[in-house]
Design brief:
Layout: E1 2-6, H1 14-19, E2 30-34, H2 40-53, H3 56-77, H4 82-101, H5 108-132, E3 138-140, H6 156-169, E4 175-179, E5 182-184, E6 190-192, H7 197-208, E7 213-218, E8 239-241, H8 242-250, H9 261-266, E9 271-275, E10 284-287, E11 295-310, H10 320-330, E12 338-340, E13 344-349, H11 355-362, E14 367-381, H12 390-397, E15 405-408, E16 414-420, H13 424-435
Parallel strand pairs: 1-2, 1-7, 2-4, 3-4, 7-9, 8-10
Antiparallel strand pairs: 5-6, 9-10, 11-13, 11-14, 12-13, 14-16, 15-16
GO molecular function: aspartate kinase activity
Protein name: Aspartokinase
EC number: 2.7.2.4
Length: 437
């Protein structure tokens, strides 16, 4: 069985929904994971934000606007008659439910329920569409088998235990439809895998049932060797290892949700990145194998803050770094990059909600400097210890750009450079011109 995930753009209109059958083969065993229609999750986030603030009038107006959009989707997607009536009933049910929430006490629990409506709508409407054209399918509610634990980590054994009987129940059926992104938490409440989590859903399902492969269908033909929005002449990469793909996803390659690599890597399930608009394009295969001896791609991650702690107490002191890291752990703030000298340590974070409190505690160790508006530029490839010349080539490519930090050797797959965000575009283009010349 294969897992096929289609993002919001791929189901962004009735026309695109209909064209999915150019890709989906109803004769093959597959689970199709759908995101919400493009724009829907943003609208739901806005609705939820208004309700959390108590702006009920504005929330109701937004709900009505989105409802009207879905009325138009039903009219275009489904033929007049019973199927259109079914589709309209589904849409009315979900929007009446949203309207009902505007009359009740609204908390973060209801917020997660609101965000789930997009995927519930897209999957149910697509299921009805398939019925209307005589294509058999089974709609599997993700809330019955997708679960995260008390640490917000996915529970793959739970998914295996609850999904396998469902597939057995509908044995003989080949096409299954389910929701991406949404799940239940350890309390049984509706929750989600965070933004971009439909990729993660697909990867987790692949791991849970040991699928043949996971296919992530988006609007771009695979992972590119640089950001095509900034750099001209980028090319898709035919093959990446799981480690290389994880580095690129984490450091800014938007095509893939960063966490989605790990379940597939653990269970050795190949992941294929493909383009809905160009189904015949080769795309990118992510697997245990990789081309050796070459630089693969460049990615950039914005919104980085650099923190430098300088202290004479650090000199020859054991336990110093542990005490520094404990502060970040206490405030649940992940660290991206780190470099050290005898009397200073520099590190970067992208979550700054607790920055003031963190700096206050760090001040007890020595002087603290903060640099905001930074960007991590990550160069990914085969940087094993036995390789030579690659690091020099990377650094030579940006010798005219001020570099705040360099991280090399923490992984055999990347060199990370911290530059001011104002220098990001020049850094990406300069690296591309010299590395991929």
């Amino acid at each position: 069985m294969k897992i096929l995930k289609f993002g919001g753009t791929s189901v962004g209109s009735p026309e695109r929904m209909k064209k999915l059958l150019d890709i989906i083969n109803p004769a093959e065993e597959q689970i199709v994971v759908l995101s919400a229609m493009s724009g829907t999750t943003n609208s739901l986030v806005e609705i939820s934000g208004k309700l959390l603030k108590g702006d009920k009038k504005e929330a109701i107006e937004l709900i009505n606007n989105l409802h009207q959009k879905y009325n138009e989707v039903v009219a275009e997607l489904l033929p007049a008659g019973d199927f259109r009536e079914q589709g309209q009933e589904v849409v009315d049910y979900h929007f009446n439910f949203l309207m009902g929430l505007s009359n009740d006490l609204f908390t973060n629990i209801e917020d997660k329920v609101v965000l789930a409506q997009g995927e519930l709508l897209s999957t149910t409407l697509y299921h009805i569409y398939l019925k209307s054209i005589g294509v058999p399918s089974v709609l599997l509610p993700a809330l019955d088998f997708m679960k995260i634990d008390e640490d917000n980590e996915p529970d793959i054994p739970f998914t295996t235990a609850h999904l396998t009987p469902l597939l057995e129940k509908y044995k003989g059926n080949k096409l299954f439809i389910t929701q991406g992104f949404i799940c239940r938490n350890s309390f049984g409440e509706v929750d989600n895998l965070r933004r971009g989590g439909s990729d993660y859903t697909a990867s987790l399902l692949g791991a849970a049932i040991m699928a043949e492969e996971v296919q992530i269908w988006t609007d771009i033909d695979g992972m590119h060797n640089n950001d095509p929005r900034i750099v001209k002449g980028t090319k898709p990469i035919s093959h990446l290892s799981f480690d290389e793909a994880a580095e690129l996803a984490y450091f800014g390659a938007k095509i893939l949700h960063p966490q989605s690599v790990f379940p597939a890597q653990k269970y050795k399930i190949p992941v294929r990145l493909l383009n809905t608009m160009e189904p015949k394009a080769t795309g990118t295969v992510i697997s245990t194998e990789s081309e050796k001896g070459k630089i693969k791609s460049i990615a950039a991650k914005d919104g980085i803050t650099a923190i430098k702690i300088q202290s004479s107490r650090m000199l020859l002191a054991y336990g110093f770094l542990r005490r520094i890291f404990e502060i970040f752990e206490r405030f649940k703030t992940p660290i991206d990059m780190i470099t050290t000298s005898e009397v200073a340590v520099s590190l970067t974070i992208d979550f700054t909600d607790n920055l003031d409190e963190i700096v206050k505690e760090l001040n007890s160790f020595g002087s603290v400097e903060i640099d905001k508006d930074q960007t991590i530029v990550c160069v990914v490839g085969d940087f094993g210890a036995e390789k030579h010349g690659y690091a020099a080539k990377v650094l030579d490519s940006i010798k005219h750009i001020p570099v705040r930090m360099i991280s090399y050797g923490g992984s055999a797959y990347n060199i990370s450079l911290l530059v001011g965000t104002e220098n990001k575009t020049e850094a990406l283009r300069s690296l591309h011109d010299r590395i991929f010349e």
